[in-house]
Write a structure and sequence with these properties.
This protein has 9 helices and 10 strands. The protein is an alpha/beta fold. The strands form 2 sheets. A 5-stranded parallel beta sheet has the order 3-2-4-1-5, with helices on both faces. Strands 6-7-10-8-9 form a 5-stranded mixed beta sheet. Helix 6 links the parallel strand 6 (about 130-135) and strand 7. The protein is globular and about 65 Å long. Bound molecules: S-adenosylmethionine (SAM). S-adenosylmethionine binds near residues 86, 188, 191 and 218. Its EC number is 2.1.1.198.
C-alpha cells in the first residue's frame, strides 16, 4: 500500500522548504496541488524536478478527487498533497483526503513545516501555552461583530488570518468588541524580506494601521481575556458542592 503525505510548503521564504518536501516532490507518484502553476513555480525556485503526475486539488474539487487519489494509494502510490503556502488543511485544501483516508483505513502522514499560525504566535510575544486559531473573520461587519463579541471572554491567545483589504475594518471591530487596551500583534510578510511585527494595544495598532496601512499577507494575534472581560463562573453553593461530591463518589 502507498501513503498520503501532506507536506507544508514555504509561506514566503523558499529556503524554508524541508529536505523531506524536496525529496517528496521528486519521488511522489502523484502530487495533488492546490494550484498546479504555483507548484511548478515553487519547484523551479527550489531547482527540483517534479517526478510524478501532477493533479489539481482545490477547494472546489477536492471531495470528488479524494476517492480517485485514494484508489491510487490503495494500489501502492505515494500521493503528496500540497497547498499554495504553509500547511495543507489550515484554511487550505487537504482535509477531504485526510478524512476519506481515515474512513478507508489508508495511511496518511505529514511532512511538517511552515505555517503562518505558529510563526505569528511565537513572534507575537503573547502567551503561547494556550491559544486558539480562528481562521478568517466573517466578511460582513454585523457577523464579524457578533463573532468577536462571542470571543470577548476567551482567555487563550487568539490567532486570526486577515486579508489586506479588510484589515482596517477588522481592527476597528476588534477595538469595538475587546476595547482599546488588549495587547495584540499584527504580523505581516512572515519569513519574507519585509517581515514586520507591530506589537501594542489594539487602539495603538488601529491608529498605526490608519497612519501607515500595512501591505502583504498578515496574521493578527490577540491577547486572551483577563480582568473584567473574563466571564463570571456561577459560584456553587454548599449543597451543590455536596451533591457533586456524592455523585463523584457514586461514579468511582
Ligand atoms: N495554509 C496556510 C498556513 O498554513 O499558514 C494558510 C493559507 S490561508 C489561505 C492564507 C493566509 O495565511 C493569509 O491571508 C495570511 O493571513 C496567512 N499567511 C500566509 N502566509 C503568510 C505570511 N508569509 N505572512 C503573514 N501571513 C501569512
Amino acid at each position: 500500500r502507498g501513503t498520503v503525505v501532506l507536506a507544508a510548503t514555504p509561506i514566503g521564504n523558499s529556503a524554508d522548504a524541508s529536505a523531506r518536501l524536496i525529496a517528496l516532490l521528486e519521488r511522489a507518484n502523484i502530487v495533488a496541488a492546490e494550484d498546479t502553476r504555483r507548484l511548478y513555480a515553487l519547484a523551479n525556485r527550489l531547482g527540483v524536478h517534479v517526478g510524478g503526475r501532477v493533479v489539481a486539488n482545490h477547494d472546489h474539487n477536492e471531495r470528488g478527487k479524494a476517492d480517485q487519489l485514494l484508489d491510487d494509494v490503495a494500489a501502492g502510490a505515494t500521493v503528496l498533497v500540497v497547498s499554495d503556502a504553509g500547511m495543507p488543511t489550515i484554511n487550505d485544501p487537504g482535509l477531504a483526503i485526510v478524512r476519506r483516508a481515515i474512513e478507508r483505513g489508508l495511511p496518511v502522514t505529514c511532512a511538517p513545516g511552515p505555517s503562518a499560525v505558529l510563526d505569528a504566535l511565537a513572534l507575537s510575544g503573547l502567551p503561547t501555552d494556550r491559544f486558539c486559531y480562528e481562521g478568517f473573520l466573517p466578511r460582513r461587519h454585523a457577523e464579524r461583530m457578533q463573532h468577536l463579541r462571542a470571543l470577548k471572554g476567551e482567555r487563550r491567545t487568539i490567532v486570526f488570518y486577515e486579508t489586506l483589504h479588510r484589515i482596517a475594518e477588522s481592527i476597528a471591530d476588534l477595538e469595538e468588541a475587546f476595547g482599546p487596551d488588549r495587547p495584540m500583534a499584527l504580523c505581516r510578510e512572515l519569513t519574507k524580506d519585509y517581515e514586520q511585527i507591530r506589537r501594542g494595544a489594539i487602539g495603538e495598532i488601529r491608529a498605526s494601521v490608519a497612519d501607515d496601512p500595512p501591505r502583504g499577507e498578515m496574521v493578527l494575534v490577540i491577547g486572551g481575556a483577563s480582568g473584567a472581560d473574563v466571564p463570571e463562573t456561577a459560584a456553587l453553593g454548599v449543597d451543590e458542592l455536596a451533591d457533586l461530591a456524592l455523585r463523584y463518589a457514586d461514579d468511582h
